Amino acid sequence: MSAPVAGRVSRVTVTPVAFRDPPLLNVVGVHQPYVLRAIVQVHTDEGLVGLGETYADQAHLDRLGAVAAALPGADVFDLYGLRRVVTEVLGASTGGAGASFGGMLEVSSAVDTVASPFEVALLDLQGKALGRPVSDLLGGAVRERVPYSAYLFYKWAGHPGYGEDTWGEGRTPEQMVAQARRMVDEYGFTAIKLKGGVYEPRHEIETVEALAAAFPGHRLRIDPNGAWTVATSIEVAGRLSGVLEYLEDPTPGIEGMAEVSRHTDLPLATNMCVIAFEHLKPAVAADAVQVVLSDHHLWGGLRRSALLGGICETFGMGLSMHSNSHLGVSLAAMTHLAAATPNLTYACDTHYPWKTEDVVRPGVLEFRDGGVAVPSTPGLGVELDEDALAALHEQYVTCGQRGREDTAYMRSIVPGFTPNTARW
Ligand SMILES: O=C([O-])C(=O)C[C@H](O)[C@@H](O)C(=O)[O-]
Ligand SMILES: [Mg+2]
């Protein structure tokens, strides 16, 4: 088999980077001063370079490195071949063990998470070789712009020792309305998601009600990442039905979500109890969730995420999109995927507005009217800024972080802090 247009993989680099992040609060703790990400560059013997982006915890970096070493010689159009290589390499190096991210998500196999950035990079290469955007390779864009939501976080005024950041404290309903106002004014978002699980449910309900009053007509969601018991979840669902478009992960696990679901008409969404194909069957059987949040970083890349979209459609479930803190390569991939997924009808999550540094050149991925225009140039449509990559890599080297440790960082400031899962 030959790939005359794009050629074969000649070299792969995986560059860990660190970018600054505000102290955003969640159920397991608080974001550290830096987010770690890995930028994958796949070079071909035809002189093309494809880009991917993923997590950069040390165990994940080790797996990425092992796959990167095995890829030279691969045909850039052979995506099943890529999966084969990843499966073989991981089987040899880890015995096929799973992966854990940030204390919130666990998967039984690391193949999907490790394959994802390489698949995105190969699709970027295919698009560049063919002169077509990645969305065309996924079936074609059904929308020209992808809507995103304002992603609000309760937060400290600044990281201890670093001074106050430009967002200031986010604790009271009034402060959260001000945070939303800035996001809506700057980016035009018409959907708003509140990251909950931080304060008592009563306080978080008051915040949602304040947002509903301040932004009539905006679509609202709250996501406490499983901080509530089943009983509390049912109570909150009753109070906020008619206010929210969906309630995300109120309580942990498929069983708990199914029990809540039996007591409310509010659609329940998840990126916690259904995060891999193996979770779909039990979730559908129990009617535990009505909306699945896809995430190509977790689900094995863009084509596997499209497959998830088809499964959700088959079982009458809605589809939305999850995000973690990310850079422009991921935003481009998310935008192409959402553009080419007809049943992805909710505004996608993004942490992008929280970020002040990037590795891609500015000008392509601009938020207007709450959405990002789908790049129409070949591949992902974004260009790496090599100087920015080097600077953020240097920041990775010197920042001292080697994994996402929200709980440990919180405990270094609030000794005795306990993650809040199903606490209220
Ligand atoms: O929707 C979600 O569950 C998330 O966005 C998970 C993230 O880890 C979020 O909680 C965060 O960044 O703290
Ligand atoms: Mg969530």
TrEMBL record:
The keyword Ligase does not apply. InterPro entries: DgoD-like, Enolase-like_C_sf, Enolase-like_N, Enolase_C-like, GlucD-like, Mandelate_racemase_C, Mandelate_racemase_N_dom. The keyword Metal-binding applies. Keywords: Lyase, Magnesium, Metal-binding. Its EC number is 4.2.1.40. It comes from Nonomuraea terrae. It catalyses: D-glucarate = 5-dehydro-4-deoxy-D-glucarate + H2O. Pfam families: MR_MLE_C, MR_MLE_N. Pathway: Carbohydrate acid metabolism; D-glucarate degradation; 2,5-dioxopentanoate from D-glucarate: step 1/2. Belongs to the mandelate racemase/muconate lactonizing enzyme family. GlucD subfamily. This is glucarate dehydratase. The active site is at K195 (proton acceptor), H322 (proton acceptor). Residues 173-267 form the Mandelate racemase/muconate lactonizing enzyme C-terminal domain. Its cofactor is Mg(2+). One of its GO terms (molecular function) is metal ion binding.
